[in-house]
Amino acid sequence: MEGGHKSMHAKRVLSIWSSLLLLMLLPAISFSQTGPKVDAEVDTLAIKIGEQITYKITVETDSTDVVFFPEGQTFSPLETVEAIMADTLKNDNKIILQKIYSLTQFDSGAYTIPPQRIAINEQPFFTDSFQVKVADVVVDTTKQKMYDIKPLIEVERSTADMWLTALYILLGLIVVGGLVYWFFLRKKPLTEEEKVALLPPYDRALIELKKLENSRYLIQDEYKQYYSELTDIVRSYLEEDVHVSAMESTTSELITKLEMLRDAGELKLEDDTIQQFRKILQTADLVKFAKNKPASTIAEQDRKLVEEIVTKTHEGLPEPTEEDLLLNEEYLEELAKKKQRKRIYWAAAIFAGIILAAGVGSTLYFGAKKVRDTVFGYPTKDLLEGEWVASSYGFPPIQLETPEVLVRQELKLPKETEELIKELQAFSYGSYVGIFSVSTSSITFKEQEEEPQFDAVINSTLINFEQLGLKNIITKQEEFETQSGVKGMKTFGSGTLERPNGDSKRAKYNILTFGGKGFIQQVVITWEEDDEYAERIVDRILGSLDVKTQV
């Protein structure tokens, strides 16, 4: 009886304690009903590969609260196709917010959509998780043949940019060549002075004497200028046609030379003509040096006499022999060639000057290295400015953007490693000992619960560097976070790469390591130190890097 009473008492105490707990919880339950409400739902839990799931999050909260919905790829292993704010409803002081996400998956299997974090006034609220099945698309193999997945193939690099650059250079050369031709090489219309200069000496002398007749020298009492031009015309004619040095001879010397030619039978001139010429030259000397001023009629008469002397001298010259004509023709041809060569030299000099000025200006503005790399090209500059490729590599996938597509590498694992590793997928571009390289690797272990050993993987990569000739390696480490918030380890530094030919160069490297239970992901980038183009490539790759951490 006593035991029964004790049992009844215990039950009573438990009932009272339960009632008290219920009373203590009632205010809290009542309060939670007035607080924010978060609900999540999906339209289906089973899809085929590539189909989409509609995932809707509904938040009911106070109109003054600040709500943050999930952003980016937070639904991994499912991929977010798009996210839209569906509706906003107000009810008194409450507001109902809805956001809809379209999710998909391209591999068959059973997946868990993880709980999503919604922040309301910086207080976290989590949705329920959902189990989703992704089924293969059924293919009737009796009607549709099955083929293996085709391997990656190398595609020739697009030459569109190269042809565009070549077109710009060609257009520039055409413009410069056109300017050079127009101003230097083409036969320009001759001016009146040039036309006169090309006439025979006799015709040119008569034209110049006619111009002197129409001048205003005598009207303006410029006798010195008048007689200077008069004597220069006749002296120049004698020098060119009679082949006597007349321009620098005195009056008496010139007359003596003409008399010697007459006596030798090389010039048929009467003595009166020579004496007239002497008198005109003496008058000109008095005007130029003694400031004598003859009458204008005498000056005009002297011009007419000079015109007659020129005509008689021209008629008194012996007829040129065939040899003289041939020599004269060769002389004219050589003179024309000389002028043409002179034009070509000037055109080449100006063209070279333009190129030199453009090169110097570009060097001063952009720097010698950039100009040299632009003109002659540089591997990493071409990679940086080429067409980049965004892709996903391995499983769990590593997503990044690279200048060239990474090619799958077939690696043979040692026997002791095969016992631990379920699968190794590696992709790379370039070589560790080259000017630039980037590689990825995804390793899944047979023991899915095994924690990743970051230090062992990183040390293995550094040992590989040493075996390839990298010496004096400097190593630093820091935490790295991808654009979607996945955290990993960044190992970076530099070293001296010893080449087989005895040369050495400074190289830098980045090792990005991620992982979870049963897998490890790694990205390795190497490049030459002080290569500004490679530095920009690395920054762009790291900015695009993302990983999936769900196996």
Q: What can you see in these coordinates?
A:
Keywords: Membrane, Transmembrane, Transmembrane helix. The chain crosses the membrane at residues 162-185, 344-366. This is BatD family protein. It comes from Flagellimonas okinawensis. There is one protein chain. The protein has 551 residues and is α+β, with helices and mostly antiparallel strands. The protein contains 14 helices and 20 strands. It has helices at residues 2-34, 160-185, 192-197, 201-213, 223-242, 251-263, 271-289, 296-316, 322-366, 368-376, 379-385, 415-418, 454-467, 532-544, and strands at residues 37-42, 46-48, 52-62, 67-68, 79-91, 94-104, 109-113, 117-120, 123-126, 130-135, 389-393, 398-402, 407-409, 421-430, 436-445, 470-481, 487-498, 504-516, 519-528, 546-547. The strands form 5 sheets. The protein has a 7-stranded antiparallel β-sheet, with helices on both faces. Strand 16 (470-481) and strand 17 form a beta hairpin. Helix 5 (223-242) crosses helix 7 and helix 6 runs antiparallel to helix 7 (271-289). The two termini are 62 Å apart.
How many DSSP E strands? 20
Kindly report how far apart the N and C termini lie.
62 Å
Q: Estimate what percentage of residues fall within beta strands.
A: 25-35%
Largest sheet: 7 strands, antiparallel
Radius of gyration: 50 Å
Shape: elongated
| Class derived from helix and strand content | alpha+beta
Mean of pLDDT: 79
